[in-house]
């Protein structure tokens, strides 16, 4: 009986579609990192190489003070802004300093992986980041 209860509680701890099932690190400490793009799909089609050709050396640094900076190799313009979770910590909200807030669903959040899904009407973009 106790094994069944433990299994139910353990499986019930999974917040994000692709995991992890359980983590001792806080969600914020897992987001705070410098990220690079590992894979991007647009409506299920892998567009990683084309995207990285347009923005070589893309890097996104998420800071403890809930600010971020995005840089691209060879560009003097960096995007800065703020980030936060929604109330259930299921979505990541980024707000550029000179723009409108964007919301992305978190599907995986580990200290070395951050997977986000952005939906715009019928268009679905999945971005897999890896720790730099």
Short description:
The protein has 132 residues and is α+β, with helices and mostly antiparallel strands. It has a single domain (2-131), classed as Domain of unknown function DUF4822 (Lipocalin). It has helices spanning 2-12, 27-31, 48-54; strands at residues 33-42, 45-46, 59-62, 67-71, 79-85, 91-96, 102-110, 113-120, 123-131.
Tags for this entry?
single chain, 132 residues, alpha+beta, Lipocalin, eight-stranded antiparallel barrel
Describe the protein in words.
- This protein has helices at 2-12, 27-31, 48-54, and strands at residues 33-42, 45-46, 59-62, 67-71, 79-85, 91-96, 102-110, 113-120, 123-131.
- It has 132 residues and is an alpha+beta fold.
- It has an eight-stranded antiparallel barrel with strand order 1-3-4-5-6-7-8-9.
- The chain is globular.
Question: How many strands?
Answer: 9
* Strand content bin: over 45%
Instruction: Specify the structural class.
Output: alpha+beta
In DSSP terms, counting alpha (H) and pi (I) runs of 4 or more, how many helices? 3
């Amino acid at each position: 009986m106790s094994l069944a209860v433990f299994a139910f509680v353990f499986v019930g701890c999974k917040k994000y579609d692709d995991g992890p099932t359980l983590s001792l690190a806080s969600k914020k400490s897992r987001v705070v990192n410098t990220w690079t793009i590992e894979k991007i799909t647009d409506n299920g089609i892998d567009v990683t190489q084309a995207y990285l050709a347009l923005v070589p050396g893309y890097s996104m640094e998420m800071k403890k003070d809930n600010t971020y900076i995005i840089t691209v190799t060879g560009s003097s313009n960096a995007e800065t802004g703020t980030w936060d979770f929604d109330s259930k910590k299921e979505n990541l909200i980024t707000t550029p300093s000179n723009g409108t807030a964007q919301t992305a669903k978190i599907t995986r959040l580990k200290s070395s992986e951050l997977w986000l899904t952005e939906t715009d009407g019928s268009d679905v973009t999945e971005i897999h980041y890896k720790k730099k």
